Amino acid sequence: MAAADGLLGLVDRIGEVGVGVLIALENLFPPIPSEVILPFAGFRAERGQLDLVLAWVAATVGALVGALVLYGAGAWVGSERLYELAGKRWFIVLSQRDYERGERFFERHGARIVLLGRCVPLVRSVVSIPAGVARMPLVRFCAYTAAGSALWNALFIGAGYQLGQNYDRVERWVSPFTYAVVVALVAWVAWLTARKLRRLRASRAGV
């Protein structure tokens, strides 16, 4: 809680710019919770200490900046390099077959994945990486990221504005969903890992 209080203090010190900075960092460090920052910004706007629209704009710009950093990281890794990694025996999370399936799926549904992924805790922080790997056109990526982020930010800032000093209820409402997403992601990665390990054992047995 002390760490969260320190982050929120940045909003009190530098206002709407602080909201944007924290949301940009939240994309890179998911433990920084937008579910706390955004409702707090709405609460401060309700008290007249922040401009409601400027806080929303700053949060959306911050989300786009953070997403572009991860997009750049994905583009730097690139499709060919990731495909080669998936073929290594020690790279136990994905096989090359898994990667090819994922690549085809992203080619068909990438726009929806980026747009809707911005509204899912944790996923919103990492969804930019596959977009960069796939080299999604930058203008399209920015448009869908900005649209999804604007919706997410409006919902949470608006909730904080309506709840006033009870803004912290938002995090409690969202926490069960966040935990469910974490469990689902961990289970998915564990399943992919177990499947690749089984395939490696089967290939060695067949040699």
Tell me about this structure.
The protein is mostly helical. The chain has one domain (2-88, 96-172). It is built from 10 helices and no strands. Helix 5 (79-86) crosses helix 6 (96-117). The chain is elongated.
Question: Can you give keywords for this protein?
Answer:
207 residues, mainly alpha, 10 helices
Silhouette: elongated
Q: Estimate the helix proportion, in percent.
A: over 70%
Largest sheet descriptor? none
- Arithmetic mean of pLDDT: 84
Number of helical regions:
10
Structural class: mainly alpha
Low-confidence stretches: none
Radius of gyration: 19 Å
Distance between the termini: 55 Å
Which percent band covers the strand fraction?
under 5%
Number of domains: 1
- H/E element order: HHHHHHHHHH
SSE topology sketch:
Blueprint: H1 2-14, H2 16-28, H3 34-46, H4 52-77, H5 79-86, H6 96-117, H7 123-126, H8 128-133, H9 138-163, H10 169-206
Helix pairs in contact: 1-2, 1-3, 2-3, 2-4, 3-4, 3-9, 4-9, 5-6, 6-9
Compact description:
It contains 10 helices and no strands. With 207 residues, it is mostly helical. It has one domain (2-88, 96-172).
